[in-house]
Write a structure and sequence with these properties.
The chain has 117 residues and is mainly alpha-helical. The protein has one domain. It is built from 6 helices and no strands. α2 packs across α5.
């Protein structure tokens, strides 16, 4: 059931993104920023935790989850270390995911030998 709910929630988030791209004909960077900021906002009002309870990794893996994690890390570290914690908390909380993405991306490039078009 977890896999099904992850697929459904992740699919809904992707469908919203595709509708945004098709409707507004903007650069995809707008969508990326909108999703990160939306994750922060939904986490702030307490809705995102409920979405994660329903959608598991389908909600935590997309950019909404990244924005939510950034905000949570900043809030946690701000409570402990003040202003400097607010600046560094989000980076510290998301660093493992970013590092993993870089490492796995590099390994995939080495293994599959990409070629320019």
């Amino acid at each position: 059931m977890n896999y099904l709910m992850s697929f459904i929630i992740g699919g809904i988030l992707c469908a919203i993104g595709q509708i945004f791209i098709d409707t507004f004909k903007k650069n995809n960077a707008y969508l990326l920023v909108m999703y990160v900021v939306s994750g922060v906002f939904l986490g702030f009002i307490g809705v995102y935790d409920k979405i994660v309870e329903i959608g598991y990794s389908g909600a935590t893996v997309p950019l909404l989850g990244f924005g939510n994690t950034l905000a949570k890390g900043a809030i946690e570290q701000a409570a402990e270390k003040g202003f400097m914690g607010a600046l560094s908390g989000g980076v510290m909380k998301t660093a493992p995911g970013v590092a993993a993405a870089l490492i796995f991306g590099y390994l995939a490039a080495v293994i599959f030998n990409p070629k320019s078009k």
